Write the structure tokens for this entry.
Amino acid sequence: LELLSALQFSFVSSKIRLKMKLSANLAFHGLFVSSCAVSAFTAPSRTVAFRNSALNGMSLKTDELADALDRSTDYVAGQADTKFARAFGSEAGKERKTVGDAFASFTKILGGPINALYKNMMSDLVGTTHLTVTDARFVRDPVWSLGMITALEVLLKNYPEEYFAKQMISSLIQSIEFDEAVLRAEAESVMSWCEGKSAADVEAALKGEGDGPIFDTGEMVRNNEFFKYSKFFGIGLSRIMSTVGVDDGDNYSTTEEWVGKCLGKPYYTACGDSDTWNKMKGRLEMMETMMKEIEIREKKKMAQRLEERAEMTLLKAQNEAEWQKELEKDKSSEDEKKEE
């Protein structure tokens, strides 16, 4: 009986250890498949479903378990049965420049140090712009180009060296492999179209009425299910609003109307970006006003110092002239005494 009990206990212990080992292997496999399957083209539902069934359904037979494992590892990047994968599956596996590559390229093209006050801002601009344009969903349009040129020129308007500010703009555009002349031409085409137009005209163009760069942009966005919104697009819309006479206080509602109703896209991010941009622009304008006032005061102080210096120089010259006259008088007096 003791031997039988010992054998029975050993069998039960072995069975428990085997079950624990199988559970650990299944858990590790589920986590491994889940972590390896993280990709822009992954359909996560299959992995999650398998992991849940593997961990919770321990009564699966060996053949069923093998089939489940095979199905979970059959995934090929870019070939999932989804609209997104069908649209961008051809991008799977392509090499992309990293953010580090973008920084290295920008630094090499610029060829000089950035003012310490502007380093963080330029670092953020280079990184976020690179991530935007390397996204498979990104499509450049005239409104985005206008927003990019506007943002860079406004942010670098008060840079100490004007020529270096222009060089930074050119370097950033070159680092993302765009042509600055093309971007400026697209931005100018939008501004030219907006001359003499109203907010209603822009709204109609975004809805698909008429022609011009706003119409083309609206048509592209409406027909693009996977449209990639970015901050520069929102800034471009804000620039258009200011050009056609929309008050800054109405920017939020106007952005909601243009992006949400005219383009049929989510508008919360665009509205938030519009508010942030207007506040930042207001602070920059206030700072510019303060800097101009400081500059005027410094010029007045300098003019006053120059005037005081000129007065002192004139007074010194007068004193020297009077001293010279006194010397000449003394000399004349001495000559007269000698003659006598």
